[in-house]
Amino acid sequence: MPRKSPVEDEVVAAVARLLRRGLPVTPATADAALLDLRGIVARAADPADEASRTAALDGTLRGLLARFPDTRYASAARALFGLPPAEPGQNLTVRRNVAAEQAGHESHHFRKRVEPKLIEKIAWELLADAERFTRSALIAPRLAPAVGRQPIQADPFAWEVAEHEEQLSRLWSAIYAARAELLAVERLISLQADRMDILRTAVTAAWRWAAARAEAISYTTAFASDLESSADELVALAGWTPALTAAQASRLTEAAVGGASREQFVAALHDETGLGNAWTHGFLARPTSPENTPDEQNGQLS
């Protein structure tokens, strides 16, 4: 195994210290090595406020544990940090016992052999998250309560600035709307929901994703032609999507341009059975839902 860097060692040690009390993270248990990670700072409503970064760290850890990549030890990792199947208020010894049971190991073996690896995995996931934020050219703008009306001066420069903020807000609104629907699809698949419910939600996700891509193209063309990130890299922030060819991605985008409604989007793609299959079957064929095998029905976007 490659030697860890000092930063990695520091983050691993910080996660281990956090484990003593588990979640929720509090200012007393939060470590600067974690609070200063780029992904945590970027998510904080007020990056300069330690309490705000503490809340961001707590939310990030909960999301990480909810999507823990090792399915065998996912429940054990959650229990170790005080999330279900553990119960609130349980001390570390009790949580370790619950985690060991979930992992199918004897408690001593779990604490000595498995727990350190889970801590390292969580630390590396936090570092990878920070790296993704470091590489991202754009971060969603933070909002603060308005203390009063802020009229725009009748000046070309002021109009340009306002238009840029308007387009940036539209871009992130579309990206977050797409993310919400992509998460909804994954949640329904995980719940083994009715196939038609999954398909309808997947189509809504396609519409939202295509609208986000259209906004990303519009924004980068007008305001960020020299930006390192392309429109596709920006819309990728919404989350995982089935693999599409460039032509298929363009066709979806065309159907969503101009603020098209879901009904208009579906009507524009009514005869695109192959495209519909590529999108919907891409979700149903994922390993997270092996019992959902795609068939050749419902290939249309509807």
From TrEMBL:
Domain of life: Bacteria
Region (Disordered): 280-302
Regions of compositional bias (Polar residues) in chain numbering: 289-302
Protein name: DUF222 domain-containing protein
Species whose genome carries this gene: Kibdelosporangium banguiense
